[in-house]
Amino acid sequence: MITKITEFFRNLPTKQCHECGKEIEEQHECYGNSCNECLNVVDL
Ligand SMILES: [Zn+2]
Protein backbone atom coordinates (compact mmCIF):
# COMPACT_ATOMS: atom_id res chain seq x y z
CA MET A 1 0.00 0.00 0.00
CA ILE A 2 1.40 3.36 -1.01
CA THR A 3 0.08 5.05 2.12
CA LYS A 4 1.84 2.61 4.41
CA ILE A 5 5.10 3.00 2.51
CA THR A 6 4.90 6.77 2.81
CA GLU A 7 4.32 6.54 6.53
CA PHE A 8 7.18 4.08 6.83
CA PHE A 9 9.70 6.50 5.35
CA ARG A 10 8.20 9.43 7.24
CA ASN A 11 8.72 7.62 10.50
CA LEU A 12 12.32 6.79 9.72
CA PRO A 13 14.78 8.68 11.89
CA THR A 14 16.87 11.30 10.16
CA LYS A 15 19.94 9.71 8.71
CA GLN A 16 23.11 11.07 10.20
CA CYS A 17 26.69 11.08 9.05
CA HIS A 18 28.64 8.26 10.66
CA GLU A 19 31.65 10.57 10.91
CA CYS A 20 30.37 13.90 12.22
CA GLY A 21 26.72 13.15 13.04
CA LYS A 22 25.44 15.74 10.59
CA GLU A 23 22.08 15.07 8.98
CA ILE A 24 22.34 13.44 5.57
CA GLU A 25 19.86 14.13 2.82
CA GLU A 26 18.09 11.16 1.25
CA GLN A 27 19.85 11.76 -2.03
CA HIS A 28 23.19 11.06 -0.40
CA GLU A 29 22.32 7.63 0.94
CA CYS A 30 24.01 6.00 -2.05
CA TYR A 31 27.31 7.31 -0.75
CA GLY A 32 27.06 5.38 2.49
CA ASN A 33 26.88 6.67 6.03
CA SER A 34 28.99 9.79 5.60
CA CYS A 35 27.96 13.29 4.51
CA ASN A 36 29.51 15.04 1.55
CA GLU A 37 31.78 17.06 3.79
CA CYS A 38 33.30 13.93 5.31
CA LEU A 39 33.42 12.16 1.97
CA ASN A 40 35.34 15.08 0.52
CA VAL A 41 37.84 15.09 3.35
CA VAL A 42 41.31 14.29 2.10
CA ASP A 43 43.84 12.71 4.39
CA LEU A 44 46.57 15.25 5.00
ZN1 LIG B 1 30.02 14.17 8.09
From TrEMBL:
Checking InterPro entries in the record gives: YhfH-like (IPR025432)
Q: What top-level branch of life does the organism fall under?
A: Bacteria
Question: What Pfam families does the record tag this protein with?
Answer: YhfH
Q: What is this protein called?
A: Protein YhfH
